[in-house]
Each structure stands twice: as C-alpha cells, then as structure tokens.
Amino acid sequence: MPRFGNLRDGPAPQAPGAETFTELLHAGGARVERIASRAVRDGAWYEQPWPEFVLLVAGAGRLAFADGTEQALGPGDWAHLPAGCRHRVAWTDPGAETIWLAVHLP
Amino acid sequence: MPRFGNLRDGPAPQAPGAETFTELLHAGGARVERIASRAVRDGAWYEQPWPEFVLLVAGAGRLAFADGTEQALGPGDWAHLPAGCRHRVAWTDPGAETIWLAVHLP
C-alpha cells in the first residue's frame, strides 16, 4: 500500500541550532529522510562514503565545503554531494524552520 | 565536486498533457529525477519492480491507484509507492507547471 505525508509536518527543532532527522523510507541500501533545522551556525562536518542528494524545501540555508566555499540554498535548490565530499550546514534561517529532503544513495 | 541546481529550472512540457523527465543523479542503482507536467489527464499506468518516492514540489496533482482510489497532492506532499504498486498521474493543474522530484530506489 502506498504511504503519504507532507514534509512540512514532523518534529520541529526545539532550540536554536538544533536539527531533527526523520527517516521516511529505507530500501535497497538507499535512505530518504526529512531534516528540519533552525538557526544553525557552523553545524557538524559530514564526510560520507556514499553520495547524497539534498533538496531545500522551505526556508533558507548555506552549505559549506572543505575548500572554504559556500553555497546558499533557497526553496527548490538542490545539491548533489558525491561520496567523500566533506560538507556542513554553515547557516540556516534564524527566523523560520528550514526543511530539507535528503536522499542517501547506496 | 558538488553540483547544484533548482528544480524550477529545466525543460517545460510543450503541450497540455505532456511531461518532461530529467535525470539529476544516478548512483548505486538509485535514480533521482525531475518531472515537469502540465494539464495531465489520465496519464499512463506505471508498475515498477522497485520502490519509488515522489515529492510534489510546486503545482498540484492527483495520483490514481489500481483499486480506484486517488490521492491529491500539493506542495510538500510526498508518496511512497512500494514495488509493484500500480499507479498513474490522474490529473495535474491545467494552469501551471507541476514539478515533481522522483526517487527510484534500488
């Protein structure tokens, strides 16, 4: 049976700088998750041995990379982060929840 | 190197009822694609041997299932279609482009 939901529904970050992660689907080594963040400043670095596709659904954010570059993202903006691409969330909107869809590929 | 884009950018359907498909990423047997549709009425049936996750990003649409049920989707609404779940796009907004993100899982 199909399942339905809306990305705007789900746990909200409880404190500035917090992020919540909700797994929506896990199949064949791939994982789809909803992320909600608020007022992130210089989040933790990630470096995964798998590719990731991330879509900013609502709000605003900035990703930072190991070479010092940053990329601002608004609604509809996506990023393909290849395996081994060191990245972090540098900033998200302090005044509103920022919602992301992340797809972790096998 | 990371790649970036926006789901609102891309090929537009050229005629009422048309859909365009753009592959954004293909890795490990999973595929992420952008779909743009306009004024679809009773689209083709799909029945895939893999699970699909689909997100409506902009516009409005309705999915139909083999048991006769339909599900209306607006921005932020997602559907998880398990492997073998027969479905089709029954309707999309006649007055605006409807943008989807589809993730085909391994």
UniProtKB/TrEMBL annotation, chains A, B:
Residues 45-103 form the Cupin type-2 domain. This is Cupin domain-containing protein. InterPro entries: Cupin_2 (IPR013096), RmlC-like_jellyroll (IPR014710), RmlC_Cupin_sf (IPR011051). Gene3D superfamilies: Jelly Rolls. CDD domains: cupin_reut_a1446 (cd06981).
